Model the fold of this input.
Amino acid sequence: MVNLSVIVPVYKVPYEYLRQCLDSLAKIELRDIEIIMVDDGSPDRCGEICDEYSDRDRRFVAIHRENGGVSAARNEGLRAARGEWITFVDADDWVEPESIGKLVDMAFELKPDILFFAGFLNKGPEQREGRFRFAERKFFEPKELYELMLRAMTIYALPKESEEILPLDGVCGKMYRVSLLKENNIVFPEGIPVSEDGLFLLHALKKAERVIYIGECAYHYRFNAEGAMNRFRPHADIEQGRYLTKLHEYVLGTGDDSLENTYYLRVLVSLRHCMEQKYFHPKNTEGYIKRRREFLRLINREPYRTALKLKRLYRLSKTLFLRTLLIRLRLPGLLFLLLRAKRLAARRIKINAKGKVYK
Done:
């Protein structure tokens, strides 16, 4: 019997990060677990490293596949999983071995459909502990589950809970009952390279009856300034459009008309990503006039046009409020300068006391 399946998608990860991740999983003292490493066609030696661990420890399973993206890799792991519980670990992150063991014991004791837990944010040598704003052991009532779903939908739109380190809508920092996922055919949407884990969580929350939070810091999230949400994405508008289509399908599937307004709050976040990752990204070599024209064309299309007409923008985070206001006033030039100032400030923050730049 396998108690826990740990799914690790692997693709072009720095070798020292991958080894730190797998070493931390190898130190988990539980024997009835499996660590499924899905090599998503990585063109480097990551696949060889996965084979090395599978040869050394019978709990490690290496799967090699053609590159299909992180959703396809996680779905491959889901199909192979034999555990009663599943958790996901990104290959450049790592875990606290003893804490994972405690959480498995709690999962069997409390029998939740989804178990949330806490973690750490690691920026270079800096580490911050973060917990969700719940009691150390929190059982969610049906109404609270609905509020949790709203928070997952509006991530980055509303003011942030200061002590929350692991993204609420992220796939990591949670354990899922396998039967919940397989009986309801809950998988990661393929062909959507952004926010796919948020959609996965929303579908799981929709079907879950028993959700529990435990304030055990078990996961280390490694901040990457060049990560997926910060790098230049020349097709960000298309990617966000695909995500929003799937999110709207989810909202319509709930039969809850009140979620429509929440959906449009999330549309504003997607618009922010389009601005930062494409139209006003420093690696975009197109002329400013052309970028400005394309951006104005985007905001005149649905669903962005309706989202920009939302009332009660004071509910938004300060950052998103200011950017939404500048867009409403058709002042993309000021927005461009604002983003440049933000990047310069972020670069200064990355320089530590020794003058090294965090990667």
In short: The first helix runs from residue 15 to 26. The mean pLDDT is 88. The chain has two domains: 2-222, 236-348. The beta strands are 2-10, 33-40, 60-65, 83-88, 94-95, 114-123, 126-130, 137-139, 174-177, 211-222.
